[in-house]
Write a structure and sequence with these properties.
The protein is of the alpha+beta class. The chain is built from 14 helices and 31 strands.
Length: 829
C-alpha cells in the first residue's frame, strides 16, 4: 500500500514539475489553455458501391477510402445500391443506401450521430459513453448494449426506431418514449412542436439486417480479441491477414502474412491532414488500421512484427506512431537536390519501436502524452516525462538524447519528396534511396516540416478527377433534433490555411482556432434544433396489420383521429351554443310586443335543448360505458404489458446472467491463456536453461576433446622427436661403427701387408739361405749348416701347404677379430 502511494506521489510530482516547466517556458501554453484531442475516432472499414466523403471544413466531395479516420464534421453519403461500415471500437455502424450522415460529436465521452436521411444499423458492444442518433424529427439515445436500427424518412417529418436487443429512448416535442427489446416505434411530426408515436412489433429481418448480422459474426469470433483491448479499432481484420506468436522479449506479437519484398511499416499508403492531429497516415492494406495507430513495430528475425499495447489499458488513438527525420536545423536535403524547408526537399520517417516515446506534434497536455504512450507500449512515466521535456525545450523541432532501434533496422527508413506528402500521393511509388550514413546523421523531429494544402485535407492528389455521386443539398443541410447540445462545427480549412503556412507542419493551437470563429456565431450548431424539456409519454399501440411493413426511409404515419361519437357530441354542443347566442341577440333587438312570442320560442328552444341535453347525457353515458370498456381493455393491455415487462426483465436478467457467464468464461479463458502463456514461458525458460546446460556440457566436452587431442598430438610430436633423435643416435652409432670398422679394416690391411712383407722377407731370407747351401751330392753338411731353401713353386702350380701346427692364442684372437671385422654391418632401422 505504501509502495503504491509512493509511486502515485512520484507520478504526481513529476506531472506537477512538467506543468511548472511549461508555465516557465516563454510563449508556452499552460495546461488550462490546452484542449486535448479525442482519444478515439471512427474508421471507414468497408465500402461497397458509390460512397462519397466530405472532410470537415471543406466543400468538396471525394470517394471514401478504407482506413480513413472519421471525426467531428466529416460527412458520408451512401448512394443507391451501396453500403458502408464504420468502426468505433465499442460499436459498429452499418449504413444503408440513400443515406446521409455525419458526426456532431465524437470524443472520449460522447458519440453523437447526425442522420439526415436513410438508415443505420447499430451494434453497440460496450456502452462506456453517451450514444445518441439525431434525426430530423427526434433524438434516439442508446441506454444498453444491443442491436438497433434507426430510419429517417425522405420527407424529414417521419422516422422509425427498432430495438432488437437493448433499450433506448426517443425524445422530441417535449415527450420521451421508451423502447424495449423487441419493439419498434414509428414517429411523425417536426420534433419540436409535435411528435406522435406508435409502437409495433418487430418484423422479420430484411436483407440489410441479415448482412449486418453476418458482419457481426467476425467480431464475435475474433482471435485477435484475446491479445488486444476490446475497444481498439480495427483489430478484427488481423485474423485473416497474419498470425500471433509469443516472443520472450515483447510478449504477444502479430506478424503480417503476405507483404511485398522490401516491405516496411508506413510505406504503402498516403498522408492526409486531419484536424486537430495534423499529418495522419492512411494505409492501403485491408488490415492497415490498428497496427498504424496503436502499439509499436519491431524488427526481429529478419521480419517485422507488431507489438500491441497493454491489453488492460484503454487504447488512445494516435495519427501515426513514427519519428520524422529533419528539423529546423536541418538545411541539407537527404538526397541530391533541394533543401528541407517548407517549400521543397525531402522528408523521411521510420516506425517507433517498443518502449520508445511518441511525442505529438499537436498541442496536448502532459497527461495526454502519458496516456497516448502508456496505452500503446510498455514504458515508464519517467521516460515519457524526460523525452517530452526534451522536445518542449527544443520547441518541438528536434528530439535529442534518444536512440531509436528502428532507425538502423534494414530498409526501415522511408524517404520521399515533400510534394508527395503534401499532395496525398501514394508513398511507395516515390520512395528515394538514400545513404544510410546521411540518414543516421540527420536530426529526428516529432513532425515533418510540410505545410498542408486543400489536397492534403481531401486525402487525394486530384479531387475533381474521379466522378462520384453527390448527395442532394437539401438532404445534407437538413436540421436534426438533438437532445445533447453538440460542439460548434469545425473551422473551415480555408480560414486556417494562412496561419498554418507559418506553423511549418504543426497544427494551430486550440485558442487560435477558436479566434478564427466569427464573433457573432451562434452558440448552437447551425444544423441542430434542440429538443425542448420533455416528460415521459406512453406510445400508442398501432393497429395490427401483419401485411404492412414500414418501408426504408419512409416510416409509417401513426393514426391519431378521435372517436366518431366524441366528434358528433362536440358538433351538437357547438350548434346549441350558436343557437343560444343568436336568440339572445335577436331578443335584445326586437320591441316589447314581440317578447311574448320570443319567450314562447325560447321556451320551445329550451325544451329542445333539454331534449338535446338528455340525448347528450345518454350519449355521454354510452361514451362512459365505452370508456369503461376501453379502460378495462387498457387495464388488460397494461396487465399484458406488465407481464411482457416482467418477461422482458426476466429475459434481461437471463441476458445479464448469460453476459456474466460469458464474462466469467472470457475471464476463465484469459486466465487459462495467461496460465498457458506462463507455462509456455516457464517451458521456454526451462528449454533455454537446458539448452544452456547442453551447450555448456558440449563446450566442456569439446574443450576436453581439444585438450586430449592436444596432449595426444604433443605426445606424438615428442615420440616423433624421440624417434628422430634415436634414429640420429643410431645413425651416429652406425657411422661410428663404420668408421671403426674402416679403421679396423685399414689396421688389418696394414697388418696383412706387414705380414706379407714379413713373409716375403722370410721367403727372401729362405731363398738366400737355399742359395748358400751346398748341393745334395756334396759332402754332408756340418751340424751348424743351414737347411737348403725350399723351392719356389712354379708358375701355375699351387703353393705347397704349410705344415699343420697348433695355433698360438694370439693367432686365434687375431683370426676371430678379422672374422668380426669382415662380417657386414646390420642394415639401419
Amino acid at each position: 500500500m505504501f509502495q503504491r502511494f509512493g509511486k502515485t506521489l512520484r507520478i504526481s510530482l513529476a506531472l506537477a514539475s512538467i506543468a511548472v516547466l511549461l508555465a516557465a517556458l516563454p510563449g508556452a501554453l499552460t495546461a488550462q489553455n490546452y484542449q486535448d484531442p479525442p482519444g478515439r475516432v471512427a474508421r471507414i472499414r468497408y465500402v461497397q458501391g458509390s460512397v462519397s466523403f466530405q472532410p470537415a471544413g471543406t466543400s468538396d466531395w471525394v470517394p471514401a477510402v478504407t482506413n480513413r479516420p472519421v471525426t467531428i464534421g466529416d460527412q458520408l453519403w451512401v448512394d443507391a445500391n451501396s453500403r458502408a461500415e464504420l468502426d468505433l471500437g465499442s460499436a459498429v455502424m452499418r449504413i444503408g443506401q440513400n443515406t446521409g450522415m455525419s458526426f456532431l460529436n465524437l470524443d472520449d465521452r460522447t458519440v453523437q450521430i447526425q442522420l439526415t436521411q436513410g438508415e443505420l444499423n447499430l451494434r453497440v458492444r460496450r456502452l462506456n459513453t453517451a450514444f445518441e442518433v439525431d434525426t430530423p424529427n427526434e433524438a434516439f439515445s442508446v441506454f444498453q448494449p444491443g442491436s438497433y436500427k434507426v430510419q429517417a424518412g425522405q420527407d424529414g417529418n417521419s422516422s422509425m426506431v427498432m430495438v432488437r436487443q437493448g433499450q433506448g429512448q426517443v425524445t422530441g416535442a417535449g415527450q420521451v418514449y421508451t423502447l424495449d427489446a423487441g419493439q419498434a416505434g414509428s414517429f411523425a411530426g417536426d420534433g419540436t412542436n409535435s411528435l406522435i408515436g406508435q409502437v409495433t412489433d418487430l418484423g422479420s429481418p430484411d436483407d440489410f439486417d441479415r448482412w449486418a448480422q453476418s458482419r457481426d459474426y467476425q467480431y464475435d469470433r475474433s482471435i485477435s480479441a484475446r491479445y488486444v483491448s476490446p475497444d481498439m479499432v480495427g483489430y478484427e481484420d488481423l485474423d485473416n491477414h497474419g498470425s500471433w506468436a509469443y516472443d520472450p522479449t515483447y510478449g504477444n506479437v502479430w506478424y503480417p502474412g503476405s507483404v511485398p519484398a522490401g516491405w516496411a511499416p508506413y510505406r504503402y499508403g498516403h498522408w492526409a491532414w486531419i484536424s486537430p492531429w495534423g499529418w495522419t497516415w492512411v494505409d492501403d492494406a485491408p488490415w492497415g488500421y490498428a497496427p498504424f495507430h496503436y502499439g509499436r513495430w519491431a524488427y526481429m528475425r529478419n521480419r517485422w512484427g507488431w507489438v500491441p499495447g497493454p491489453m488492460q489499458a484503454e487504447p488512445v488513438y494516435a495519427p501515426a506512431l513514427v519519428a520524422f527525420i529533419g528539423g529546423s536545423g536541418f538545411g541539407i536535403s537527404i538526397s541530391a537536390g533541394g533543401g528541407y524547408g517548407p517549400g521543397g526537399g525531402d522528408v523521411g520517417w521510420f516506425p517507433l519501436g517498443p518502449r520508445e516515446v511518441y511525442v505529438p506534434s499537436y498541442y496536448a497536455t502532459p497527461q495526454y502524452v502519458e496516456r497516448v504512450n502508456t496505452s500503446n507500449t510498455v514504458v515508464s512515466t519517467t521516460t515519457v516525462t524526460n523525452v517530452y521535456n526534451s522536445v518542449v525545450n527544443n520547441n518541438y523541432n528536434q528530439v535529442t538524447n534518444v536512440t531509436y532501434v528502428n532507425r538502423t533496422a534494414p530498409n526501415a527508413v522511408t524517404v520521399v519528396p515533400q510534394a508527395v506528402v503534401r499532395s496525398a500521393e501514394p508513398v511507395d511509388r516515390a520512395v528515394i534511396r538514400v545513404d544510410p550514413q546521411r540518414v543516421a546523421s540527420a536530426p529526428v523531429a516529432p513532425r515533418p516540416q510540410v505545410v498542408p494544402t486543400q489536397a492534403s485535407v481531401l486525402g487525394t492528389p486530384s479531387p475533381g478527377a474521379t466522378r462520384m455521386a453527390r448527395p442532394p443539398a437539401p438532404v445534407m443541410e437538413r436540421k436534426v433534433v438533438a437532445k445533447t447540445p453538440p460542439p460548434p462545427p469545425p473551422v473551415p480549412f480555408a480560414k486556417q490555411e494562412p496561419a498554418l503556412a507559418k506553423q511549418a507542419g504543426r497544427p494551430l493551437p486550440p485558442q487560435q482556432v477558436q479566434a478564427l470563429r466569427p464573433p457573432t456565431a451562434a452558440e448552437t450548431h447551425p444544423q441542430v434544433k434542440l429538443a425542448p424539456p420533455a416528460k415521459p409519454a406512453t406510445l400508442a399501440r398501432a393497429p395490427a396489420n401483419p401485411e404492412r411493413q414500414p418501408a426504408p426511409n419512409a416510416p409509417a404515419q401513426p393514426q391519431a383521429a378521435p372517436p366518431q361519437a366524441q366528434q358528433k357530441a362536440a358538433q351538437q354542443q357547438a350548434a346549441q351554443r350558436q343557437a343560444a347566442e343568436k336568440a339572445g341577440q335577436q331578443q335584445a333587438q326586437q320591441p316589447a310586443a314581440q317578447q311574448q312570442a320570443q319567450q314562447k320560442a325560447q321556451a320551445a328552444q329550451q325544451q329542445a335543448a333539454e331534449k338535446a341535453g338528455q340525448q347528450q347525457a345518454q350519449q355521454q353515458t354510452a361514451q362512459q360505458q365505452a370508456q369503461q370498456k376501453a379502460a378495462q381493455q387498457q387495464a388488460q393491455q397494461q396487465a399484458q404489458q406488465q407481464a411482457a415487462e416482467r418477461a422482458r426483465q426476466a429475459q434481461a436478467q437471463q441476458q445479464s446472467a448469460q453476459q456474466a457467464a460469458e464474462r466469467a468464461r472470457q475471464q476463465q479463458e484469459a486466465q487459462q491463456l495467461a496460465a498457458q502463456q506462463a507455462a509456455e514461458r516457464a517451458h521456454l525458460a526451462q528449454a533455454q536453461q537446458q539448452a544452456a546446460q547442453q551447450a555448456a556440457e558440449k563446450a566442456g566436452q569439446q574443450q576436453q576433446a581439444q585438450q586430449q587431442a592436444a596432449q595426444q598430438q604433443a605426445a606424438q610430436q615428442a615420440a616423433e622427436r624421440a624417434r628422430q633423435a634415436n634414429a640420429q643416435q643410431q645413425s651416429a652409432q652406425q657411422a661410428a661403427e663404420r668408421a671403426r670398422q674402416q679403421q679396423q679394416a685399414q689396421q688389418l690391411a696394414a697388418q696383412q701387408a706387414a705380414e706379407r712383407a714379413r713373409q716375403a722377407q722370410a721367403q727372401q731370407q729362405a731363398a738366400q739361405q737355399a742359395q748358400n747351401r751346398p748341393p745334395a751330392n756334396q759332402q754332408q753338411r756340418p751340424p751348424n749348416a743351414q737347411p737348403a731353401p725350399q723351392q719356389r713353386p712354379q708358375q701355375g702350380q699351387p703353393p705347397q701347404a704349410k705344415p699343420n701346427r697348433p695355433q698360438t692364442p694370439e693367432e686365434k684372437a687375431r683370426e676371430e677379430q678379422q672374422k668380426k671385422e669382415q662380417k657386414p654391418p646390420p642394415p639401419p632401422e
